[in-house]
# Entry
Amino acid sequence: MQKITNIPTLEQIQAAHKAIMPYVHYTPVLTNSSINEMIGASLYFKCENFQKIGAFKMRGATCAALALDEEEKKSGIATHSSGNHAQAVALTAQLHGLKSYVVMPATAPTIKKNATRGYGANVTICEPTIESRQNTLSKIIVETGATFIPSYDHYNVIAGQATVAKELIETIEALDVVMAPVGGGGLMSGTALSTHYLLPNAQVIGAEPEVVDDAYQSFQSGTKQKHTGASSVADGLLTNISDRTFEIIKKYVTDIITVSEEEIVAAMRLIWERMKIIVEPSSSVPLAAILKQKERFKGKRIGVILTGGNVDVNQLPF
# Structure
């Protein structure tokens, strides 16, 4: 796998998909007749909650790790993350015989800390601020020489995440809309690229919590904005978008819809009750957006990416 230094091309996304396939699952696409009837549309849910480590993040981490040279591999890989990316980097390192160093905030769910340690990572706990995370990681990288694998601001990571939509488009014909949630924008920008290349007439729509709507504000204004640091039940979407991801989103995303906390929880519950599968709140944000704007989506064939299922069942929001 080569190191990607610009916006990934279709050929690079195809190469990324071929490279990561021995290490990730080709996840299923599910439909649900009662949800379809409720909306008056045909929804196709790409179930990355069934992915290794329970989330799509495994794809990007693998794609970045496979591009390391032999010298870089000797020193291992490192990241900071409160959850799914932490586990993805840890398992990727384990599968490739690499050392891994993961910085996690004290507020990260215990279930995710334990899982990251279980995959063999050296976990360092820090204060729950972005400054503390970055400073702690910087010290570890200086000490170990490990290579930083960001959770989204990295073209190999974006190419890896683009394989989710690639699989969805190759599985389900003639989608009118492809939707994903927006956090840091790695999945959203990858989804936009795959759809642009493979299904250019389809709309690409992002969905984001109202309380952390930096992507929406950036999209509307045309310049990158930051949210104020509020929290959301969709804890996987708290990160601000980056220059790399925003450049792609600005170019290839049709629209971004924001939803309330109550709408997110209601959509999450609907998926649990009707589809009988476990998803985390971040996964339900696109469905919440569809439910909010039913008329807009009536009669459409819509691909929806369910990003993950790592939720503490002792602390459900419903």
